[in-house]
Structure formats: C-alpha cells, structure tokens
Write a structure and sequence with these properties.
heterodimer; B: alpha/beta; Alpha-Beta Plaits; four-stranded antiparallel β-sheet; about 30% helix; elongated
Chain lengths: ~270, ~325
Amino acid sequence: MSVRTVARKDLADAGRSKALWAVSLAVVLFTAGITAAAATTVDEPASVLFGQVFQITVVALPIIALFVAKGAITGERESGSLRVLLSLPPSRRDILFGKLIGRTALMLVATVIGAVATGVVIVTLLGDGLALLVPFMFFLGLMGMAFVGIGVGISAVSASDGRATALTVGAYLVLVALWNLILRVIQAGAVEFGLVESGSQPAWLQFIGIFPPSRAASTAFQTVASGGQIFAADPFASVWFPTLILLVWIVVPVLGGYLRFRSADIS
Amino acid sequence: MTEPAIDTEGLTKRFGGVKAVDGLDLTVESGEIFGFLGPNGAGKSTTINMLLDFVSPTAGTASMLGLDVSAERKQLHRRIGVVPENYGLYERLSGRRHVELAVEFKNTDDNPDELLERVGLSPDDAGRPAGEYSTGMSQRLALAVALVGSPELLILDEPTSGLDPNGARELRELIQAENERGAAVFFSSHILEQVEAVADRIGIIDDGRFVATDSIEQLREGLDGGARVTLQVGREPEAQLGDLPNVRDIEVTDGAVCGTCLEPDAKLTFIDRVRETTTVTDVRIEESSLEDMFASYTTDTENDEHTEAAVIGGAEA
C-alpha cells in the first residue's frame, strides 16, 4: 500500500522533472540515431547490427540509469521531504522500494521507447531482424534495472547528494569505462604470478570478464543473437549465467543500501 | 487509564563522545499541551528525532500513545501528526497533492480542501506547486499535512519559525482547537512567549537534560525573581542605604540607584529610603520577566560556558 503510493508519487514528481524527460529523449535519439547511421553506412545483417548497437548502448545507458536513480533518497534527504515522508506511516523500507519501483519504471519506459525506435529503424532499413527486438529490449531492460538498483543503493548509503554523485561516477568508471583495463591488469597479473598460462581463459577469469551488468547483458544478448542456448554445457556460452549475474546485480546493491538506510540517522 | 501521549525513560543519544540528550525522562499526558523549551543546541531536535525514529537512541526507551516509537512506528504514525524541523516539500507537486498523499498514507477520509482552508491556504494557492510557496505558506501546508487523520498527538518542532505575528496567532488558535478536540500537543520552541501563550506545562531542556518541568506559574514561583527598581536621582546618595528587608543587589551608579525588591511593599520602603538621602527624579520598575526565568534556568545550572544560551524574546523569530 505505502510502497505503491511512494512509487506513484515518485513517478509523478520525477515525471514532472524536465531533466529526466531530456534524458529519456536523449536515450531515444541516441540509440535510434546510432542505429540509423550504422544501418545506412555498414553493410551488415540485422543480427550483427543489433549486436553493434547493443555494444554502444551498454556504454551509454548505465550513465542515464545511474543519473535517474542516484538522487532517489539523497534528493529527499537534502530537501527535507524525507522527514515529512518518515513522519507519515511509510517505513524506510516502503520508501526505498517505492523509490526503486518508481525509478525503475521510468528507466524501463525510456529503454522500451529507445529499443522500439531502434528496432523500427533496423527493421525498416534492412527489412529483417524483428525477432531480435524482444531479446534486445529484454537485456537492455535488465541492465537498466541493474544500474537503477546500483544507483538507488548508492543513494541509500549516501548522506548527501554530492557523495552519491561521487560514488555513482566511481561505479560507472569501474564497472563500465575501466573494466577492460581492470580485466587486463588482472589477467597480466595472473600470468605474471603463474596462476594461469598466457592466453588461457580459466572460468574465474571469464567470470570477471562478464561480471559488470553491462558486460553480462552484452554476453547474454550476443549469445541469443548468435543462436546460443539458454542452458548449454558451458555456462559462459549459455544465456542463463549472464542473466543470473544481471539478476544478482538487480537485487544485491539495493538490499545492501537498505541495510544501511534502515539504521541511518536522519537528522 | 489512558496511555500518556509521550513517555520516555532515560532517553540518551550520544554523537561520538558528545551527549546530545542525556537520560531524559519525559511524560506528556494525553490531552495536554506541552511546551518543549530550550536554547538552540540544547537537545530538543535530537529528542524529537528519537521520538520520530529518525535517530535511534544510544540508551533508554520512548513510547507514544503506548506504542514503541521504533518497533510500532507504522501503527503509531497513523495516529500522530508531525511538523518536523527542516522539513521540505515536493517542489513540483501542488499543495493539495501533498495533503492528498498524507490522506492516502494514513488511510483516512479527510477532505484535503477543508484542511487547506483551515490552515489558511486559498484554493488557488493549494493548486500551485509547493516550490513557489513562501516560507509562511510552506509552514501552513506542513501543518495541513500534520492535521490529516485527526491525530491524537501533534508534534510540532519549532512550528512558528517562518510565520509572521498574525500566522503565529493563528497557529496558537489552531493548537488550542486541536487540543479541545482531544489531541495532545507537544511543541518545541526556543522562544518563550510562544510556549507561554498556549502550553499547560513546559519543560526546559539545556545540555540534553531537563532543568525544569512544570506549569509556567510554578516555574515562576520557583524563582525569587522579584522586581528590579531603578531610581533616577539628582545626586548620589550621601549616606549608606544600609540593609533593607526584602531588597537585594543594591547598586549605586552614575545618577541612578537600583535594587531588586522581592515583595511589593519593599519597593515603597526602598524608594522612601533613597528619598531620605537624595532627590528621586524618576522611577522605573521591571517585573521579573519570563525571559529572566528562562535565562536563569538555562544559564545558572552548572557552568558558565552556556551564557550564549539565553536565547530569548523572539530575537531569532
């Protein structure tokens, strides 16, 4: 009851934010625009094109998701409206999960619109690829949820909006921008210390490779696009494993944020 | 027997090594208007934050309406109305929407428009986004939100800040009306006259501890304040004034003689005595004010480092 009211209020409030509408519009224009440019200049089949667009989108979308989510709690904390809300019956859990639902809904709407626009561009320009639109939307949606969850989790543990912004930027840098570098350093280190042979890819290294939500989503989508199975013998070649990683990302950061927020002093 | 509106035992909050609230025992009876008075930084807000479960106590217990403030907070918060300190509004939502949300959260059937009218917000204003409100209007809206669900206990943290004198008077009337309906009211202030005007009982807190809890009359009686009599004189008295019954702190300064008279007739004795030695050109009498009382409770208690604690008389309103 309270969770739903918080979520609806958050949607109504955030829905009136011009910044968020600008962001959503940017997502749509960005994905559809890139796709149109790629579709007209590169001579590739739809499945490859979808894959390329996905690769680009998983870099851009997390920024937007984190931006949408990071002020969920800190914004209310700084304005003082959290004190009003907490004076009323909703508990901290109601507020946190209501906010999560509101922001996730907002992100999903933006993602679906963006994905549909992309799909329309690909299908009209290439006359093919409609079947991939659903997995395209599905995995982008899951990844968006994961980053909204990370953002809301960060918001819940941050005492100020500035701190939430800093942590958000850090999370983006580590999980998206620098992960390739981090992965290479780990790989080189492992070779140096004789843990793995040069060129080999043990499971734990593969796991680190697909650990961030954006990479897990990419892997899952590429597996689907290249006709891979949901449950193959090799978890890294099947869809379920990266999907599971995404689900863990959707649940764990928010839960961690809740545990901190539950006992935080609101003063 | 009715449960007390507020009941705390040994309520304590330590921030790091600093005790913000130190073993507070507070009982507010149901149907009572209780003024929670103290200088800024005395521990008022921390106490209220603990009552509202914003901050968890280091030690001690607190319950309101017989419900634990933390374990039974949801049930409790349906039955209380709060104007918290430093509250904020949703800038993009209208005033009416704020009240509607509170109605929804509390699961009541109040009419938002009636509540808004009661606190003096016009239907036009109620339709505007709260981001456009002045401080006074925000305060009125916060009150309307607090009144949703006819709460059994109203907690108002510094409710007069931001209100003009007219608004402060309306607030007093509203508090009285709510009290007549049967609600207990607990409100904090650092301004004595506002507490004095409505409270049945006041508690003065300083340094995280109650230094006095009683009715205004009792508190005043507890102090031998007396009246300060200042006499303008033509020249300094030629003779020693000597000991006078019920007159203390006699001071002779340039062109004036002052004394604190503890009994009404001591004033006359004092004036007569001075006139025997010099000519009196003017007389000024200051009855001991509530401000003096407040100051004496919050500064004389133990140490001198709180001299700035004498925040009184509406200077900051």
